[in-house]
Description:
By secondary structure, the protein is mainly alpha-helical. The chain contains 4 helices and no strands. It has a single domain (6-143), classed as Ferritin, CATH 1.20.1260.10. The chain has helices at 6-33, 39-66, 86-111, 116-143. Helix 1 packs antiparallel against helix 2 (39-66), helix 1 (6-33) runs antiparallel to helix 3 (86-111) and helix 3 packs antiparallel against helix 4.
Amino acid sequence: MSIKNKNKIIDILNEIMKYELSGVVRYTHYALMVTGRDRLSLTQFFKEQATESLLHAQQAGELVTGLGGHPSLEISIIEESNKHNSIELLNESAAHEKNAVSLYKDLVNEVDGESIYLEEYGREMIKTEEIHSIEIQKMLKDFSI
């Protein structure tokens, strides 16, 4: 694949990989910390998010190596708020998903006209992350009653 800005694309994919790996840690932590009436459903949700974040990190890493790059061994910084009620966990999740969308949009903008495959990959990931955001907002509505 001949892409003029390949190194920049690899850098963005590595940022995505690091961010998604931080999601694995974040969502695993949330699954362990959630308490209260919705513990079972939220624990399951967060475990599924952790699993999906790992898959997303692996996909980004495959693209990095496919472009001839070296996947990072790092994860993004995760700030511990020490707020573990369901509302806080969901709000932090919403912020995490919003930031993920931003990274994928950076990728789409960078690959514009260079690679249909990478552009479609980025768009599909944006769609996935936006769906997560919608679901989280729906869950948060239950807590505003």
